[in-house]
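Saturday, quiet lab. Running sequence design on the structure tokens for the scaffold JK sent over.
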């Protein structure tokens, strides 16, 4: 999980169907305003070949620390923090300058070959985990300040989303973990609890296994 700003979702190049191509290069352009004629402020560049996985890099007038996030197996994109009123253009967070300030630009998510995913949806339909187990917090109900004890032997438990309610998620917690485990006779405890899976800005407090188990 990248330590940068994950935003509220990610915009990406749809390259899955091209993975068998001989050589593929593509560009995800970020513009100064939500307009296809606006000047570019930077871009995410993709190079792909059958002899190796995709290679992503950032291009911008300033030297940047890239703020790319892997959302799927060897597939990365640019996090975004907001969209225009129509929901077509997303404001991407491309990277950070040396002084820590961010470089943002607008991405046309409906352009050919471009896709987008919101974390609120992505995190609510697959096994998830707390990137920092010591910060795991479970509650008996949503919007509660009363925590229940964290399962012992963290992070040796599995968290499965059941129901989303705003920034809260009802989850099934299985301990010991049964995620990616074949049939066995180990006794397990299952509890239904709540977690705040998005923070007050809509950023994720939890993450998912982008490369599988």
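Result came back. Writing it out in full:
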């Amino acid at each position: 999980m990248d330590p940068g700003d994950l935003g509220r979702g990610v915009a990406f190049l749809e390259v899955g169907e091209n993975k068998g191509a001989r050589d593929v290069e593509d560009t995800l352009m970020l513009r100064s305003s939500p307009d296809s004629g606006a000047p570019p402020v930077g871009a995410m560049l993709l190079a792909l070949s059958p002899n190796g996985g995709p290679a992503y890099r950032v291009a911008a007038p300033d030297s940047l620390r890239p703020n790319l996030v892997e959302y799927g197996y060897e597939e990365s994109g640019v996090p975004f923090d907001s969209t225009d009123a129509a929901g077509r253009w997303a404001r991407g967070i491309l990277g950070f300058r040396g002084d820590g300030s961010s470089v943002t630009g607008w991405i046309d998510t409906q352009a050919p070959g471009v896709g987008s995913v919101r974390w609120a949806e992505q995190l609510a339909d697959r096994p998830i985990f707390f990137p920092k187990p010591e910060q795991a917090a479970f509650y008996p109900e949503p919007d509660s300040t009363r925590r229940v004890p964290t399962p012992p032997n963290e992070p040796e438990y599995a968290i499965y989303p059941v129901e989303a309610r705003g920034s809260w998620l009802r989850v099934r917690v299985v301990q010991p973990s049964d995620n990616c485990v074949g049939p066995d006779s180990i006794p397990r405890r299952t509890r239904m609890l709540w977690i705040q899976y998005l923070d007050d800005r809509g950023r994720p407090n939890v993450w998912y296994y982008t490369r599988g188990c």
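Notes for JK: The helical segments are 119-122. Residues 128-208 form one domain. Ask whether to fix the surface positions before the next round.
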